[in-house]
Write a structure and sequence with these properties.
Number of helices: 11
Helix content: 25-40%
Number of domains: 1
Strand content: 15-25%
CATH class: Alpha Beta
CATH architecture: 3-Layer(aba) Sandwich
Shape: globular
Distance between the termini: 56 Å
Length: 294
Amino acid sequence: MKLRGFLVVAVLSVLISSCFSRWIMTDKEINEHYANRKSKPIYHTIQTDSAKIHFVSFGDETKQPILFIHGAPGSWDGYLNFLDDTTLQKNFHLISVDRPGYGKSQTKPKKKVYTLEEQARAIELSLKSNYSGKKAIIIGRSYGVPVAVKLAALYPQSVQKIVLLSPAIDPEKEKFWWFSGFGKIFLIRWFLPERMNTATDEKFAHIAELRKLEADYAKIQAEITVMQGGQDNIIDQSNFDYAKKMLAGKNAHFIYIPESGHLISRSRPDLVMKEIYDSENITDGNPQSIGSKQ
């Protein structure tokens, strides 16, 4: 009976881990990826009394910064298609972080959950590696979206624009999976990669954090673009409507992409690139629908 229980736990752990492991590269895979590339990441770590932030950068630190914030689970390498873009490297200072609790942004002893404010304040430190004096463009996706919102609310003097991809921001529409509850069981957690346990802890604290965030939307002074895919089965798509409600009256632009899934930064990087280069050209808050492009 004990052996059967052990096997059930092991199988559940493998199933849970495999659901998301394809989204994260190992150190070996990253090293192989950059082995023959001219431009390689510069690694940074900043340690404070309350947090540790690890991030990578590409390009000239005297150019305008673009800050990339990943979802859950995830790490800085989730934006490789942008970080490796030679045109972006030439024109901007690219910064991609491991959010506190993920990747190499972990303190010892490990903290169970970082609030949105703790994450935003830690991630803002990465912008101090930039010497342009220009406001940042922030790209956030999924669980990285509320962090980007919090950062823009806390540091309006530092943020020009936020691009919010597949936003997981509505506290009433937090989506739980069949395996979500299993991720809280000690024996299963013991088998799982640390990033999975971090994601589980964050998920069960997320609703309360999103409710606290509601007061921060009014503080945003930056330009805003929100993108939502019509084939997204990771978050409830009503998050898009929630974003319209919370950002009413702001300099905000809403783009619905019928053919895209959750990972818009991978399926439609052209649209994200357009928002980066058109950062001064948003003039209305009306929703826009974009169909398939060849």
